[in-house]
């Protein structure tokens, strides 16, 4: 003999019927091919937006001072200390990993962009 569902189980069943998939954590339910096409268009639009990256304001602040980064790195300072220098002296909050990423993109020591 089955007992009546607890309020929590009843809530989960109602949410699932409404369209929120609690297992896959998706907030939609594909009702038909039209809705699937709509979701496909949304995904394509998001992918297109990723390709067309907008310029970074932080990059615009760091690039004019890139000669300073190269000089400090040539003196043996790591990116962590360079980031701290930028924070304290220049009032620019930049992470060491972002400086390392830019270092690789702009060619680092040998002048060649690294993959």
The string of secondary-structure elements, in order, is HHHHHH
Helix content: 55-70%
State the low-pLDDT regions, or none.
none
Summing up helix and strand content along with how strands pair, one would put the structural category as: mainly alpha
Gyration radius over CA: 25 Å
> How many DSSP E strands?
0
Count of discrete alpha- or pi-helical segments spanning 4 or more residues: 6
- Count of structural domains: 2
Silhouette? elongated
Structure description:
There is one protein chain. With about 120 residues, the protein is an all-alpha fold. It has two domains: about 45 residues, no CATH class; about 50 residues. About 60% of the residues lie in helices and about 0% in strands. The chain is built from six helices and no strands. The chain is elongated, with a radius of gyration of 25 Å. The termini are far apart.
Write the layout of secondary structure elements.
Layout: H1 7-18, H2 33-51, H3 57-62, H4 66-74, H5 79-89, H6 96-106
Task: Provide key terms for this protein.
115 residues; mainly alpha
Task: Offer a quick outline of the entry.
Helix content is 59%, strand content 0%. The protein is an all-alpha fold.
């Amino acid at each position: 003999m089955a007992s009546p569902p607890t309020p929590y189980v009843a809530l989960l069943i109602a949410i699932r019927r409404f369209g929120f998939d609690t297992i896959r954590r998706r907030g939609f339910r594909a009702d038909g091919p039209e809705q699937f096409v709509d979701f496909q268009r949304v995904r394509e639009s998001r992918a297109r937006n990723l390709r067309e990256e907008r310029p970074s304001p932080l990059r615009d602040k760091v690039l004019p001072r890139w000669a300073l980064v190269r000089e400090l790195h040539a003196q043996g300072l790591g990116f962590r200390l360079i980031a701290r220098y930028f924070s304290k002296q220049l009032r620019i909050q930049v992470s060491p990993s972002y400086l390392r990423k830019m270092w690789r993109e702009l060619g680092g020591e040998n002048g060649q962009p690294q993959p």
